[in-house]
Specification:
- The structure is a single chain.
- It contains 13 helices and 14 strands.
- By secondary structure, the chain is α/β, with parallel strands linked by helices.
- Helix 3 runs parallel beside helix 4 and helix 5 packs across helix 6.
- It is 45% helix and 17% strand.
């Protein structure tokens, strides 16, 4: 009996460590409502799909993953509340969000809670210039995009460039980067530099000012809703000047807003979509996404939320069970295969590697990846 009691005591000590292994909670902030709701819905769909795949294989080291989702509405104030909710929900890390100003509103909250945060559609340089030890991003920075924008304009021979932005942290930052690089390289004259008010329905007045500057091209590094309106209203006023955008234009709703005819010929700088990549990871992901949702992702930024999940999964699988250890592991990561390509980070938390491509809208309203 003593031996049986001893054996039962040993079992009692062992069983809780097996049965009571807690779920791993990962937070996701995304704009499920507001003007960027389609971005947020794809972010949720992609990360949910990946979490389900992880759990179907037994979880991470035997623990199931629980995804905790909060709607940030694409608004800094709402995002701050979402971050507070996630910080008190027991998550080890937070993925998100879309929009540099929206992400910036959450950084201090999550940093003070000592959580890892991985931005996905947040390219403003200053986000990683603050020295936050646990902040990363799966998207590139505006200075790299500014370099590619300038070299693209020079390659195509545009000599008089108008730049219009929306005063957001993202668009203003990219506009400033592109302008400075154009001036430094003396590759073109800047004949117009100003801002519009996002969310309006009529941009004919500022388009008239732009037209009077007589540019060879105008560059609008803002978000796709306003870019679509500018394309449509530019056509309505009979102005056929070429227009170039930044990576926030990489969303099929741009064509819906502008109309295929007005959008035709528009081109933009952006990371590539998975359907334009030939890696096994991209192919397998696209098949699984199509099987579940009967469509393909409409934007690269939602895919970058999937990349964020993949690097967190890899970090936790290595036995990194707290935010500090996760952050340390991510900073030594260099070439992990993810949905959008190989992933790595530098000491600041920025994604490393050449990532930008040029897309052009064809006459059917489809985005075509251009030869490099």
């Amino acid at each position: 009996m003593k031996k049986l009691g001893l054996l039962l005591g040993v079992v009692a000590l062992l069983v809780p460590s097996l049965v009571l292994a807690g779920d791993i909670k990962i937070g996701l902030m995304c704009p499920l409502t507001g003007k960027w709701a389609s971005e947020g819905q794809d972010m949720k769909n992609i990360v949910s799909l990946l979490v389900d795949e992880t759990n179907a294989k037994g979880g991470i080291n035997g623990s199931k993953v629980e995804l905790v989702v909060e709607d940030d509405a694409g608004d800094p104030r709402t995002a701050a509340l979402a971050a507070q909710k996630l910080a008190s929900a027991g998550v080890v890390a937070v993925i998100g969000t879309y929009g540099s100003a929206v992400t910036e509103a959450t950084q201090n909250i999550l940093a003070e809670s000592e959580l890892v945060q991985i931005g996905t559609g947040s390219t403003s340089i200053r986000l990683t210039a603050k020295g936050m030890k646990r902040f990363f991003r799966t998207c590139p920075r505006d200075d790299e995009q500014g370099r590619v924008a300038q070299s693209t304009l020079a390659k195509f021979g545009f000599k008089k460039v108008a730049i219009l932005h929306d005063n957001s942290a993202y668009a203003k930052g990219l506009a400033d980067e592109a302008k400075q690089r154009i001036l430094d390289k003396k590759s073109a004259d800047i004949v117009f530099f100003d801002a519009l008010v996002p969310g309006e329905r009529d941009y004919s007045a500022i388009l008239t000012k732009l037209r009077s500057a007589d540019p060879d091209l105008f560059f609008y590094p803002g978000y796709y809703p306003e870019a679509g309106l500018l394309l449509r209203q530019k056509k309505e006023m009979g102005w056929d000047v070429p227009m170039m955008g930044g990576d926030a234009a990489n969303h099929q709703d741009l064509v819906k807003i502008a109309g295929p005819e007005a959008a035709a010929g528009y081109f933009f700088v952006s990371p590539p979509l998975p359907q334009d990549m030939d890696t096994d990871e991209a192919k397998n992901f696209l098949k699984a996404f199509k099987d579940r949702y009967k469509t393909v992702p409409v934007s690269v930024w939602a895919v970058l939320a999937g990349d964020a999940y993949k690097v967190l999964e890899a970090a936790i699988a290595k036995g990194n069970d707290d935010p500090e250890k996760i952050a340390e592991w991510l900073k030594q990561l260099k070439e992990l295969p993810t949905l959008s390509g190989k992933m790595g980070f530098d000491e600041k938390g920025d994604r490393v590697g050449d990532f930008y491509r040029i897309y052009k809208v064809n006459n059917a309203g489809k985005f075509e990846l251009q030869a490099r």
